[in-house]
Amino acid sequence: MFEGNRYTRLDTEALFKSGAAATDMDAVMLLNHKAAIKNPLEAAFFSYRSTRRNCSPSKTVKSA
């Protein structure tokens, strides 16, 4: 639960699972925080996967 928020953990889980449109300011805040956390994590994950997929032992740069 975020500070200053009236949602319980169970209410927050239900909101996230339902994907319903936000009906109050607390719901808007929670959904915005979820998106703010999710997007950079997904971008980092897919960036890492594409980097690892394109890397082969012959292309590895050795440090001096």
Which descriptors would you attach to this protein?
single chain; 64 residues; mainly alpha; elongated
Topology:
Layout (H helix, E strand, L loop, with lengths): L8 H10 L6 H29 L11
Please explain how this structure is put together.
The protein has 64 residues and is an all-alpha fold. It has one domain. The protein is 61% helix and 0% strand. It contains 2 helices and no strands. It has helices spanning 9-18, 25-53. The longest helix is centred in the middle third of the chain and has 29 residues, at 25-53. The protein is elongated.
Instruction: Name the shape in a single word.
Output: elongated
Could you tell me the number of beta strands?
0
Mean pLDDT rating: 76
Spans of at least 5 consecutive residues with low confidence: none
As a percent range, the share of helical residues equals: 55-70%
Please, how many helices? 2
Q: Determine the strand fraction and express it as a percent band.
A: under 5%
What's the Cα radius of gyration? 19 Å
* Total individual domains: 1
Summarize the helix and strand pattern as letters.
HH
What structural class is derived from the secondary structure elements? mainly alpha
Distance between the termini: 49 Å
Main β-sheet: number of strands, strand sense, barrel status?
A: none
